[in-house]
Amino acid sequence: MTILDNSHEEHSAPSPRTPKPATRGPRPPAPDSFLDRFFQITQRGSTLAREFRGGLVTFFTMAYIVILNPLILGGFSADNAPTDVAGGWLSAAQVGAVTGLTAGVMTILFGLVANLPFGLAAGLGINSFLAVSVIQEVTWAEAMGLVVINGFLIVLFGITGARTAIFRAVPRELKAAITVGIGLFIAFIGFVDSGFVKATTGGPPVQLGTGGSITSVPTLVFVVGLLAMGILVARKVQGGLLIGIVATTVLAAIVEAVLKIGPASAANPGGWHLNTPVLSGQLVSAPDLGLVGQFDLFGAFGRIGALAATMLVFTLVFTNFFDAMGTMTGLAKSAGVAHKDGTFPRLKSAFIVEGFGAVAGGATSGSSNTVYIDSAAGIGEGARTGLASVVTGVLFLGSMFLTPLTSVVPLEVAAAALVVVGAMMMAQIREIKFSKFSVALPAFLTIVTMPLSYSIANGIGVGFISWAIIGAASGKAKKVHPLMWVVSAGFLVYFARGPINLLLGA
C-alpha cells in the first residue's frame, strides 16, 4: 500500500467557455458504528479491514521481541544468562511472559488514548544497555528501579508540556530528515538481520553476504520475500505486506522441512537467525508472571552512590526520550496524520502514555517499553488509527500463551518487510531543501548517523547540534529556537558522558 502524504491536488479554475466540472457524488454516510466513531476510522480515510490487517502486520513484524528480549535479558540458568553484581539472573521464560504482557497492555492503552497505529514493546537499545553495562554495577532489581525512575521523569516531561514544546521547536526540515533517517535505519536493520549485509574483519566495515556473495538459504528467502512484498506493494494489492509475510513464512517452513537448515550458530553460520520456521512440541503454555513487581526503586543509589546512579538515569532518559520522539515523528508522517509542522493529533497524550511504557517495563522487569519503528509496516498496510494498535496489543497478550506460534516467523521474513517500509519512508526527503546548505548538512548528518551508529537518538543529537551551530554561524541565530540550544547542550553532555563519568569518578 502506498503511504499517504499531506499534499493537496491543485485544480485550475474552469474556463468561462467550458461547463463547470460535474460535482462529485454524495459523501459517504456518516459513520454509525461505535468503533468507527471512537477511532475516527472513516474520518482518517481508513476501513475496519485495513485497521485489522495493519494491526496483524505490525504484530508479525514486532513479534520477534517476545523471543529476542528473553535472550538478551535472561537465560535458562546462571551459566547462560547475564548475571548482576550479586550473581542474580532472570529466567528467560519469565522475561518472555512479561515481555508479551507489557507490550500488550501498553499497545492497547496507546491505541485507546492516543488513537495512533503505533505498537509498543521493550526497547532493544535500553535492554542491551541494561544487560551489558548497568548490571555490572547494580542488581537486576535495582536496574529495573532505575528504568521506572526514568519512566516517571518522561511522564513528567509529557504532563508539563516540556516534551511537546521541544517537539514543536524542531524545524520542519529536521523532522523530515528524522523520518528519512529512520527509514534508512530500519532498512539497514533488515539487511543486517537477514544476513544480506555482514560485518567484516580486516576490510571494509560491512560487505554483501559472505565474501560479497549470498551464500545462505535463509538470506535467499529474504531476497525472495523482499521482491514478493515489493511487487505486491507496487501493484497496490490490498494486504500486500501481510500476504508477503505469510507467503514467505510458508516458503521458509517448506525450505526448512526439506533442507533441515536449523538455527544459526558458530558451527552453522548459514542457519536461520533467531527463529527457525518450524512448529514442534507444546503450542500452548501458561505464562509465568513471577517477575511482575520485582524492582528496587532506589536501591542503586545506595549501592553505587547518587552521582553514578543519576548518570545512569540521565542516559536512560535521553535514549528513551529522543528515540521515541524521532520514531513517532516518522510514523505520524507515514500514516498521513501529521500536520505541516510535524505535530500530530493527541501529541501530548501519546508522549505521556509512551512514558508510562517505561514505567511498566521496569515494574515488570521486561525493560523500558517504547514505540516501535516496526509499526511502519502496519501503517504501510493501511493502518491509520488506534484500532490497529488494539489489535496488535491483543495479539501480544495472546503471545504469552502461544510462544511457539510467535516464533514461526523467521527474522529473515520480518527483515524483508522492514526494508520495504524503509523505502516507503524515503518519500519524505522531498520536504528537505538541499539547495540551502545550512539545511542540507544538518539534515544529511541526521539521516546518515542513524544507520551508521545504529541509534535514532544519536542521529537526532547530531542533527540538533549541527543545526544550531551552523544556523548561528551562518547569520541565522535568531531563527534557531532557544529550546534547540538547550537540547543541543544536553546532547553534548550525552555524547561526552563517558569522559564525564571518569572525570567525576562516577
Automatic annotation (TrEMBL):
Region Disordered: start-end pairs: 1-29
Calcium as UniProt keyword: no
Transmembrane segments: 54-76, 88-109, 116-135, 141-162, 174-192, 212-234, 241-259, 297-318, 385-402, 408-427, 439-470, 482-504
Any one GO molecular function term: purine nucleobase transmembrane transporter activity
Biased composition, class Basic and acidic residues, residue ranges: 1-12
Topological relation to the membrane, as annotated: Multi-pass membrane protein
Residue ranges that the Swiss-Prot or TrEMBL entry lists as coiled coil: none
Keywords annotated in UniProt: Membrane, Transmembrane, Transmembrane helix, Transport
Stated name of the protein: AGZA family xanthine/uracil permease-like MFS transporter
